[in-house]
From TrEMBL:
<feature type="transmembrane region" description="Helical">
    <location>
        <begin position="33"/>
        <end position="51"/>
    </location>
</feature>
<keyword id="KW-0812">Transmembrane</keyword>
<keyword id="KW-1133">Transmembrane helix</keyword>
<keyword id="KW-0472">Membrane</keyword>
<protein>
    <submittedName>
        <fullName>PEP-CTERM protein-sorting domain-containing protein</fullName>
    </submittedName>
</protein>
Length: 54
């Protein structure tokens, strides 16, 4: 479940970051996708660590 939350947070942060840098809609989409993938993978590792430790 953490994977989805981290990916959503990454997409929101990525779009906000591109908008702050005055990017176009395609820039916002690319940043959102990149941050969503990166934070989704981070969430996956955290989720796996939590599952293995419990």
């Amino acid at each position: 479940m953490l994977v989805y939350l981290f990916a959503l947070a990454g997409a929101i942060y990525g779009a906000w970051s591109a908008r702050r840098r005055k990017g176009s809609g395609l820039d916002m989409a690319q940043y959102a996708a990149g941050y969503a993938i990166a934070l989704g993978v981070l969430g996956l590792f955290i989720d796996l660590i939590l599952i293995r430790s419990l």
